[in-house]
Design brief:
- By secondary structure, this protein is mainly beta.
- The chain is built from no helices and eleven strands.
- The strands form two sheets. Strands 2, 4, 5, 6, 9, 10 and 11 form a seven-stranded mixed beta sheet that branches. Strands 1-3-8-7 form a four-stranded antiparallel beta sheet, with no helix packed on it.
- It is globular, with a radius of gyration of 13 Å.
Length: 126
Amino acid sequence: QVQLVESGGGLVQAGDSLRLSCVASGRTFSKPCMGWFRQAPGLEREFVAAIGWSGGTTYASDSVKDRFTISRDNAKNTVYLQMNSLKPDDTAAYYCAADLSVLCLASSIPTRYDYWGQGTQVTVSS
């Protein structure tokens, strides 16, 4: 079992920055691949970014790759999402997810992930 707890969301203005954190506990010795997804009201969950177990591989969606950066600190069992130049379209609940498969890859596919956090809300005003 892995428990994921996100934090760092909030209400900001367009152009501001936020850093989201996701702390993993439980079966963290397996060093899972991690992903960030987001979901706005009435819309499907959308891939944001993912990172491999060592942090050497990252992957982000086209809509955020020039503004958002995913990173991890395995010593702290934490994955981060640095979000710069935020736009109103970035408003959503942001979720982190863990893929515990042995040969996991930084994936954009939600069904690849075994565990999900409860989400943290990001609201960007214009």
